[in-house]
Design a protein that fits this description.
The protein is built from three helices and seven strands, in the order ββββαβββαα. It has about 140 residues and is of the alpha+beta class.
Length: about 140
């Protein structure tokens, strides 16, 4: 069985209303973390930056505004579903990316074929990784 799905999508990095430029963004989904998708942004002159957030947030954000906090996904025009905005925020800093919806939907369709939406919890490896991560967190809190 395949363990991951990858795709590369060109997105517009919206610096301001007057300035934007196209960048490659790698989309990745792994069965070892079945609830999340990872987007790696390849900004010119900087090291790649990876954000992980809920796959369901990206799925829902294609059709309607979704997300609270650091990640928000919104269709540019909910009637046409042609493009989506992805807003990433850390503190007061924000980055906004515009993408065609079609390649995101194609990627999400491939993730659904690998792990159908709603079936993420059935992956035994995920539960083992979750238990290991929780044990590490508790050990670090106990040591600190």
């Amino acid at each position: 069985m395949r363990e991951s799905v990858q795709a590369e999508v060109m997105m517009s990095f919206l610096v301001s209303e007057e300035l934007s430029f196209r960048i490659p963004v790698e989309l990745r989904y792994e069965t070892s973390d079945p609830y999340a998708v990872r987007l790696t942004f390849h900004l010119p002159g900087d090291a790649p930056v990876t954000w992980a957030f809920g796959r369901e947030l990206l799925i829902d954000g294609v059709g309607r505004p979704c997300g609270e906090g650091d990640v928000r996904v919104t269709p540019v025009d909910p009637d046409s579903l042609g493009e989506v905005l992805i807003r990433l925020q850390v503190g007061s800093d924000q980055a906004v990316f515009r993408s065609s919806t079609a390649p995101l939907v194609a990627f999400l369709d491939r993730t659904d074929k690998l792990v159908p939406l709603g079936q993420e919890g059935s992956l035994a490896d995920f539960d083992a990784h979750l238990d290991e991560a929780l044990d590490r967190i508790l050990a670090e809190q106990g040591a600190g």
